[in-house]
Each structure stands twice: as C-alpha cells, then as structure tokens.
C-alpha cells in the first residue's frame, strides 16, 4: 500500500505498490496514496505537490527515518487499542453525516512532529459509509489487486501480487495522478490483513511501503528508476491502515495514511501550502468514493 528534487519537466516515482508519477512544470510531489491502503486503496491517498528546488535529494536522513518509525510505532499502538473489544473499532466520526452520503477527511499531522530533519511527515484519515455493503465484500475487493486498475481508474494503471501467504501479501503497483503536474510512482508494499474471528463484523489491514523508486521518462524506451543521488524525494515512505465495521445496515470504512516526503524548500511555503492541504484530501476522498462505488455494484 506502508510510501526530493530538482526542476523537472517529466519525472516518475516508483513506490511500493507501484505508483507512477510524472512531474511537469518544475514542481515536485509528495505522494500519500490512499488507494495504496491495502497497498493502495486508501493510500493514493495523498499526492502532495511541491515547488521544486534545483537539485536532487538523496534518501531521507537517519534522523528523519527514526522520527517516522517512532511515529508509526505510536500510531500502531493506538490502533491496536482501538481495535480491541474494549474500544470502538473505528476512530470517532459523525455517523449521521456519513449515512447521508458524506465523506469525512481529517488532517492528523501533529504540528510538533511534521518536520523531521529535512523531511515532512503527513498523516490523514478518511471515513465513509456504504449502505447495504458487507465486510466480506470489502475484504474481497481490497485483496483483489489485479482489479485495482478497473476500480481505481484512471489513477491505478497496473497492480499485481508478488507473494501471498494466507492473509499476508507483497504487492507492486503503478499509479498515475494529475494535479497541475502529473505524478507517476512504482512502489512495493508489505500488507497484512486481520479479518474478524467471526466473518462479517469488522476487520483491518496494515500496509508498509518497502521500496520507493522514482521513475524517469515513464512509458518510453528510456523509462528507468532513478538512483538515490538523482531521485527527488516525492515519496520516501507510505504506510496505510484500513479499518472497517459492519453495522447500521451497512459498512463503515476508515483509512489512515502516513507518508514521509522531502521538506518544503525555504521561502516556498506560500506556494506549496495549498497543495499540502488539498491533494491528500482529494486523494483520500477519491479512494473512499471509488471503493464505495465498487461495493454498490
């Protein structure tokens, strides 16, 4: 599903589940694929576009990776408690709004933990409700990676399972997202599903990106993954968490995505802010609505 730069005219990024991103107009992007939840669905969640500096950026610093990993440990600890019988299976939400057809998107990035030594952490959550849907149907959809190009078109171009062992998957995916610029990513993810002991009630999945490669000249004879000295930091890490619960005559779906991207160049916050706010929101909403539409048919 768990997912920095140089002036670019056309750039692609390869991320865990295979996401493809082409970048144009001298901009750079941070991707938070909501759709990549379960290795994608959800995770596509967020493509964050940034204005680009004039040099490529290598891998994230050890301090940034340590900060990201520490944040993930805390998040997964909270989700473990949330998924226990004592707590509500999902984070609190406005059920009436969801049952009326709305989708709730929340930015959860902590003000104190967003900037991690040359990198930025992005945390978002989206929730939706599908009347008449069942947990078993969602699990079947999320596990059917070969069907992603149809369910999540036009963003997901290709998706496939590399290895499966019961509820454990390793997947790869190529995704294309266009927001002023076009971003292409190829990624691989390690995904674990945790279905309910008794079919129907609820379940969840955890997706960790295991490889993020930036692709140059996608779709051409010169297509190739950039090495660490030339990649642009559009997306360094992406972890996606799906949770679902069957009640109130339908299915509640909730996605949380956490990504690590390069930091914002000094002096460009005024230009980048709108992207940071709008792209992840739009990506999460797209993933939830596409999933809901698939479950209705």
Overview of this protein structure:
The protein is of the alpha+beta class and 297 residues long. Helix content is 23%, strand content 38%. Strands 1, 4, 5, 6, 7, 8, 9, 10, 11 and 12 form a ten-stranded antiparallel β-sheet that branches. Strands 2-3 form a two-stranded antiparallel ribbon. Strand 2 (27-34) and strand 3 form a beta hairpin. The longest helix is centred in the last third of the chain and has 28 residues, at 269-296.
Secondary structure blueprint with pairings:
Blueprint lengths: L13 E2 L11 E8 L8 E9 L10 H21 L12 H5 L4 E4 L11 E13 L3 H9 L4 H4 L4 E10 L2 E12 L1 E15 L6 E15 L7 E2 L11 E11 L2 E13 L6 H28 L1
Entry keywords:
297 residues; alpha+beta; Alpha-D-Glucose-1,6-Bisphosphate, Chain A, domain 4; 10-stranded antiparallel beta sheet; two-stranded antiparallel sheet
The name of the CATH architecture is 2-Layer Sandwich
Helix share, percent: 10-25%
Structural class, from helix and strand content? alpha+beta
Order of helices and strands: EEEHHEEHHEEEEEEEH
Condensed summary:
The chain has one domain (14-296): Alpha-D-Glucose-1,6-Bisphosphate, Chain A, domain 4.
